[in-house]
Amino acid sequence: MSLYLKDADSSIDHGIDWSAHLAGQTILASAWSVEPVEAGGLTIETSGFEAARTSVRVSGGVVGRVYRLTNRVTLSDGQVEDRSVTFRVEER
């Protein structure tokens, strides 16, 4: 799992390139989630996907908190895969 730093006032884009893990499959669906869910916490603004890549824009977060952002994709052969990254919110 990767760790990224984020300012509470910033809105940033993050993406995952799934191509090395697809073995000839394509992405049919993508969903993002954040843990923990809390008032003023990290917020998913928008998300999208292509055949081998997913993307999300996140904003907010409480300074000093750590959040796990997880992307769950459904592949063309029915498999479901998850990848997570960690964001630590700091004054930058």
Comma- or semicolon-separated keywords:
7 strands, 0% helix, 92 residues, three-stranded antiparallel sheet
How does the SSE layout of this entry go?
Blueprint: E1 2-7, E2 11-17, E3 27-35, E4 42-49, E5 53-60, E6 66-75, E7 80-90
Parallel strand pairs: 1-7
Antiparallel strand pairs: 2-5, 3-6, 4-5, 6-7
Radius of gyration: 14 Å
- Which overall shape is indicated by the principal axes computed on the Cα atoms? elongated
Strand count, sense and barrel status of the largest sheet are:
4 strands, mixed
Please, what is the CATH homologous superfamily? Immunoglobulins
In the CATH scheme, the class would be Mainly Beta
Q: Would you identify the regions where 5 or more consecutive residues have pLDDT less than 50?
A: none
**Strand arrangement, largest sheet?**
1-7-6-3
Strand % is over 45%
Number of domains: 1
| Strand tally | 7
CATH topology: Immunoglobulin-like
Order of helices and strands: EEEEEEE
Derived from helix and strand composition plus strand pairing, the structural class reads mainly beta
**Count, helices:** 0
**How helical, in percent, are the residues?**
under 10%
Terminal CA distance reads 22 Å
**Mean pLDDT, all residues:** 96
In the CATH hierarchy, the architecture is Sandwich
Descriptive report:
The protein is mainly beta. The protein has a single domain, classed as Immunoglobulins (Immunoglobulin-like). It contains no helices and seven strands. The strands form two sheets. A four-stranded mixed β-sheet has the order 1-7-6-3, with no helix packed on it. The model has no long low-confidence stretch (mean pLDDT 96).
